[in-house]
């Protein structure tokens, strides 16, 4: 049913929802052939929806999740 998807979207959602304590501000999901990304986001600096994840570039050519801090980001 899910083809080449290693982890079906319902399972990704269940894993993401198990980590709701990691961030109450946004939740994201991307699944496709050979990939599954899920994230709960805690917004601290950039509160806009543009910072929600997974982030997509080039009309879906690449997706990224980021968990961490970028020091000296304002410079």
Shape: globular
Q: Please give the share of residues in helix.
A: 10-25%
Structural domain tally:
1
What kind of sheet is the major sheet? Answer: 2 strands, antiparallel
> What are the low-pLDDT stretches, counting only 5+ consecutive residues below 50?
none
Number of strands: 4
Radius of gyration: 14 Å
**Helix run count:** 1
Structural class: alpha+beta
Our estimate of the beta-strand percent is: 25-35%
**Overall pLDDT:** 84
Order of helices and strands: HEEEE
Strand order of the largest sheet: 1-2
What is the CA–CA distance across the termini?
48 Å
Description:
The protein has 75 residues and is an alpha+beta fold. The chain has one domain (9-64). Helices cover 13% and strands 27% of the residues. It has one helix and four strands, in the order αββββ. It has a two-stranded antiparallel sheet. Strands 3-4 form a two-stranded antiparallel ribbon. The relative contact order is 0.18.
Summarize the structure.
This protein has 75 residues and is of the alpha+beta class. It contains one helix and four strands, in the order H-E-E-E-E.
Describe the protein's topology:
Blueprint: H1 9-18, E1 26-32, E2 35-41, E3 55-57, E4 62-64
Antiparallel strand pairs: 1-2, 3-4
Feature tags:
75 residues, alpha+beta, two-stranded antiparallel ribbon, globular
């Amino acid at each position: 049913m899910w083809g080449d998807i290693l982890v079906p979207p319902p399972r990704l959602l269940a894993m993401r929802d198990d980590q709701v304590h990691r961030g109450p501000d946004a939740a994201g999901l991307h699944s496709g052939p050979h990939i599954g990304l899920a994230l709960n986001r805690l917004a601290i600096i950039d509160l806009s929806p543009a910072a929600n994840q997974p982030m997509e570039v080039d009309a879906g050519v690449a997706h990224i999740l980021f968990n961490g801090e970028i020091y000296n980001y304002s410079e």
